[in-house]
Input
Amino acid sequence: RSTQMIYYFTGTGNSQYIARKLHHQLNEDYISMNTLIRNNDHSLQNIQGTLVFVGPTYAWKIPRIVEEWILLTPFNGVEEVYYVMDCGGNIGNAGHYNQELCKKKGFNYKGTMEIIMPENYLAMFDTPEDDEAQNIIKQADPVIKQTAFYIHQHLPLPDMSLQLKDKFQSSIVNTVFHHLYKQSSHYQYLNEYDVFPD
Output
């Protein structure tokens, strides 16, 4: 049978939470990219069905460390690919770049879902209080469930209406952001990919 394989990358737990929810709702396996990246593991990944990438939004794109791992890793039996990205505000034009990544890999791109989760990038934003965080998660749960439905039915994810600022954020701003913060202790906090290894 065709399966759904979920790969997730997490630095603070948001993406791990979403991946676990999808795991339970789809009744399919989920794998930590953190562990694979940490071990520099680029061995062949046998999918035989649907591939789902779950990860955070770093400057309105998927983390570069994740993109690099996907590019360097061979996949077998991929029928379609979904991206699920959590963020504190919006994912900008990340879907466009995810689609371009799929073209490079020869994947059938089925869309990108934006899921709002509690803000946790301490370098630039205030983190919400516990009650507010719980409320954000409560609002995210039905979106995760809806995402699972699309994936289970092999339906394309709904297109998001993009504004000019979204395209600007995911292109020019992302490049500037990456260069400014990649050497800082705050950015190292973002890239601490073995905080939640499982």
Remarks:
- Residues 121-125, 162-198 have pLDDT under 50 and may be disordered.
- DSSP finds seven helices and five strands in the chain.
- Residues 35 and 189 are 17 Å apart (CA to CA).
